Amino acid sequence: MKRRDFLIAGAVLGAAGLGLGGCSSYGGSAQESAGGEAGRRWGFVVDVEAFREEADLDAICDACHKAHNVPRIDNPKEEVKWIWGEPFEEAFAEYASEHMAADLKDAVVPVMCNHCEEPPCVRVCPTKATFKRADGIVEMDYHRCVGCRFCMAACPYGARSLNFSDPVDHLDEVNADYPARTRGVIEKCMMCADRIDKGLTPLCVEASNGTILFGDLNDPDSEVSRALEESFAVRRRTSLGTGPSVYYVIKGGGQRA
C-alpha cells in the first residue's frame, strides 16, 4: 500500500471510530497555531458596491490564480478556485429579502477562505495539513494533505477545492516561485501568507484598486479597523460561530438596516 493510501485509510478509520469532531490531530483546539506574528489578526474589508463591472472581479481573480498556479478547469464539478464571485443574495442568504435594494441584489462580491477565528477545517484535519497561524491565517501544508476531504465537508463557505487531476495539466504557464500542487491534494486561499511575511500586501488587494482593504483587525488604527468603524459591515454565516476575518462593507447600510 502506498503511503498516501495508507494515511487516507487511517483517516477514514479514525473518522469512523471517533466522528469528525475527534479527527483533530492536536486534541480538537482550533486555537493551536504555528508561524506568523502573535497578537495580529489579518483580515480583509471588501467594498460590496464597488464591483460594478465583471472585469473588476476578473482582474482580482486572475492576479491570485496566476501567481499561485491555480488551474483553470471548466467542469464545475472539478473546478479549483481560491477567489471567485458570487451574487450578494447567494453569498449572504441570511440577509436576502424580497425588498432588497437593487444595488445589492445585482452586486457580485468576491468570496474566498474566511480565515476564521474558530476554523472547523483545522479541527477535522487528521494530518495537520491545515493549521492556524499565530496571526490568524489558516494555512496548509500540501505535503501533509492526503485528500480525505474532511476539511471540504467542514468548511461552510465552500472555500476548498480538490485536485481531481494534475493541476499542471491545466496551466498555460507555471509560476516557479510558488509550489504547484499534485493530484489528490486540497487547496485554498492562503491570504498570500508568503507575501505578508515579507511585508507585502495580498495580491487580490494589490489588484483591487482600493475595493479590498487589508490589515490587522486587532490594531484600532489600521486601515481595516477604521473602515469598519465608519461603515456598516457584514460577515458570512456568523451564526455558525466561526468568526470570519473577511468583512463586507455596505455603504448606506446604517439607513437600510
Task: Lay out the secondary structure.
Blueprint: H1 3-18, E1 42-47, H2 54-67, E2 83-87, H3 88-91, H4 102-105, E3 108-112, H5 120-124, E4 130-132, E5 138-140, H6 150-154, E6 161-162, E7 186-187, H7 193-196, H8 203-206, E8 212-216, H9 223-230, E9 232-234, E10 246-250, H10 253-256
Task: Report a brief summary of the structure.
The chain has 257 residues and is an alpha+beta fold.
Question: What features would you describe in this structure?
Answer:
There is one protein chain. The protein is α+β, with helices and mostly antiparallel strands and 257 residues long. It has helices at residues 3-18, 54-67, 88-91, 102-105, 120-124, 150-154, 193-196, 203-206, 223-230, 253-256, and strands spanning 42-47, 83-87, 108-112, 130-132, 138-140, 161-162, 186-187, 212-216, 232-234, 246-250. It has a four-stranded mixed β-sheet with strand order 8-1-10-9.
Which whole number gives the mean pLDDT?
A: 86
**Share of residues in helices:** 25-40%
Radius of gyration: 18 Å
Unreliable stretches (pLDDT < 50, length at least 5) are 4-32, 253-257
Q: Which class do the helix and strand fractions yield?
A: alpha+beta
Strand fraction equals 15-25%
Order of helices and strands: HEHEHHEHEEHEEHHEHEEH
What is the number of helical segments per DSSP (H or I, 4+ residues)?
10
End-to-end Cα distance: 58 Å
The major sheet is characterized as:
4 strands, mixed
- Total number of β-strand segments? 10
* Strands in their spatial order, largest beta sheet: 8-1-10-9
Morphology call? globular
